[in-house]
């Protein structure tokens, strides 16, 4: 057996032995009573009774073990031309002072702190400061509109919010303070304090009694030490899109999270302490939490905070510049970033200006959406390093399936993120609720207990946690993805089984967009679906039916709807296309056939669902989608190779 097979088998046959050994690589104030607390299935807790501090393990431990002079964070902001290198010793001091500023505001263990931050080092410092004192951070992606921020403020009820005077998006300065104030105006919960990082690109006014300047707060603070916390205490809440506009607050604990993430740096990414690891994502997403902040720092690596884009900042050579300048060994990003580079520089001419191999670049990892084979092959051809597709979710916090470079490198099968990672027992369900045979498509599920580091709860919503993930297939976690597993165990992730779409690697809920459209006084009903897009993977398109008697024309109403979604969900939704239709296809019980609409738009074979109330509607929908530039006029419903995507 190779090291992957050994690790995989042991992780399933002896999970307590496997993870208990892995946990020895961290500092514990006191060891756990039990590696796996399985006394309340289907709820499981790892390292029950253990005392740990994530910040101590990610920062102070390295200083004490001689890494104080090593760079911990490299900040690279191409449009402002700014760069900053922060050593582990400096990071410890900055985090200790920031934690002191929180303590001065009365924040203690278990209190929530929201971060609405651009890609600047202070975002990481504030997250680690929370971890230092046991406050629970909740980072909200800067591209979300004030409305989305308000929803999260109401749910998390933070004492303090960290923000900055602005973010830099491509070449545009986006002032954050007005967005933040608008969100607080709309939220029913009011924080006690807003701590704002001043940036030279945008002024801030400290007019509100809530506002406090970050630098002044730090200057006035006293450094505080790490607090021993229960392994099972929450480290953070990260809100992610669910089927409705009500986001899910994924809760991650301290102990299991630190154990699993540190292990992945070796086992999956094959990276050593001291090397430079770059996740080109945003701290507002799970990839940012796990692989910009926690995993590289827990492992003693240098992490890169890049406030730029793959293209346009200033050109499609941006990634190659960062790799060579900062001597990056491993890059992790979303396939859409590579599609953007490929589109602007198909022959990779910009790459020829840089010696990425000479800089020690060894591997590219892609996740966040399905990796199309063309993009992987393009990257393999030009970069001449392994290009690894791996599958994961906000809920899981780290990869469910991957080609674990640190254990054994398997051959690539395009379209598959390879094999389940140790700890993950992945299966496919069939329609009758039993496990599906090899090769058959169906919902992808993972046998409980999930390994350490995956979600332990939805914030204050145990009922929703159970119904969303644990109820449909007793004994298994329902991933929300569908796919199949081949005869060699390779996993293929093909589609979501719910109304979640992935736009440029950003996870969004079509249900949330529908809620916004339905708030317009002229809209009677609507459907939003994600259609294939050559750059962003998917983009949302909407179909609306107007209320009877509406006199205003759709040319007036449609732009209003586009700006409502931008205003309430955010620009990242990239919601720009919608059409008016007379009626929507539904089952006889009234369920809108979104999966079928999506297949028609994407020119994929589809089955006319047996339960449809009037099959003729599909031709009307096809004509409307064709007018929007989707669907082929001659695409007939076709059972060959078709699946009924509305049945999952
Ligand atoms: N704050 C404010 N606005 C933001 C934002 C932020 N943090 N992030 C994105 N936006 C805005 C953008 O300015 C853009 O607005 P526009 O419609 O006015 O142009 C809109 O949201 C869409 O942004 P984005 O999804 O980034 O698309 P893009 O067309 O600007 O760029 C890519 C396309 C592919 C280059 C870009 O999406 C990218 O680099 N993706 C990398 C993938 C990634 O980071 N995924 C995260 C999970 S791994
Ligand atoms: P997020 O929670 O934002 O990380 O999005 C998770 C979703 O993105 C998953 O449920 C999948 O639908 C999709 N996804 C992530 N990685 C992959 C991958 N490698 N292949 C296919 N889909 C993926």
Topology of helices and strands:
Elements lengths: L2 H11 L1 H9 L10 E7 L2 E6 L2 E2 L1 H14 L3 E7 L4 E6 H17 L7 E5 L4 H13 L2 E4 L6 H11 L3 E5 L1 E4 L2 E4 L1 H10 L6 E5 L13 E3 H7 L8 E2 L3 E7 L7 E6 L1 H13 L8 E4 L6 H13 L3 E5 L11 H9 L1 E6 L1 H10 L18 E4 L6 H11 L3 E3 L11 E2 L16 E2 L5 E3 L13 E6 L9 E2 L3 H9 L5 E10 L5 E6 L3 E4 L2 E4 H9 L4 E11 L3 E10 L7 H15 L8 E4 L13 H8 L14 H12 L21
Parallel strand pairs: 4-17, 6-7, 6-8, 8-11, 11-12, 16-17, 16-18, 18-19, 19-20, 31-32
Antiparallel strand pairs: 1-2, 3-13, 4-5, 9-10, 14-15, 15-25, 21-22, 23-24, 24-26, 26-27, 28-29, 30-31
Helix pairs in contact: 1-2, 3-4, 3-5, 3-10, 4-5, 4-8, 6-7, 9-10, 12-13
Q: How would you describe what is shown here?
A:
With 648 residues, the chain is α/β, with parallel strands linked by helices. It folds into two domains: 3-308 and 390-445, Rossmann fold, CATH 3.40.50; 501-628, GMP Synthetase, Chain A, domain 3, CATH 3.30.300.30. It is 31% helix and 25% strand. The strands form ten sheets. A seven-stranded mixed sheet has the order 5-4-17-16-18-19-20, with helices on both faces. Strand 9 (166-169) and strand 10 (172-175) form a beta hairpin. Helix 4 crosses helix 5 (121-133). It is globular and about 70 Å long. The chain starts with a helix and ends in a 21-residue tail after the last helix. It binds coenzyme A and adenosine monophosphate. Adenosine monophosphate (AMP) is lined by residues 240, 286, 367-371, 389-394, 417, 480-481, 493, 496, 502, 507.
